[in-house]
């Protein structure tokens, strides 16, 4: 099974830099990109990724507003918010709506990369990815 990422950020330079960093992580098999909330939702509906890395400030809305809809589409989706809005209020709101993690783009990029590395490794060694079937939770 693949570990696919969807990177949602309106800044092409940020997406390019992040893709370069993420593609070197073992186990990451695909990195798709979206520049808007609309593109992100369409992508998740058509080809659900394993993990979404989501910026909050996007041209067609606020990333916080799609966390709940993303969860409805793919309940097990991993969601990491990566933003310059590092204030604790946003952190709490994102986590309360269902984001798994929240990272300040200016100070915690290395923590995001560590988390992706950890999740990709866990995903690769998960029994469900080795052919075992589990009953729904």
Automatic annotation (TrEMBL):
**Chain ranges of the Response regulatory domain:** 4-120
Q: Organism's domain of life?
A: Bacteria
What terms describe the molecular function in GO for this protein?
DNA binding
Q: What is one Pfam family matched by this protein?
A: Response_reg
Task: Name the InterPro entries for this protein.
Answer: CheY-like_superfamily (IPR011006), NreC/VraR/RcsB-like_REC (IPR058245), Sig_transdc_resp-reg_receiver (IPR001789), WalR-like (IPR039420)
Q: Kindly list the positions at which 4-aspartylphosphate occurs in this protein.
A: 55
Q: Which keywords does the record carry?
A: DNA-binding, Phosphoprotein, Transcription, Transcription regulation
Question: Can you supply a Gene Ontology BP term from the record?
Answer: phosphorelay signal transduction system
Task: Establish whether keyword Aminoacyl-tRNA synthetase is in the entry.
Answer: no
Family matches, as PANTHER family: NITRATE_NITRITE RESPONSE REGULATOR PROTEIN NARP, TWO-COMPONENT RESPONSE REGULATOR
Tell me what this protein is called.
Response regulatory domain-containing protein
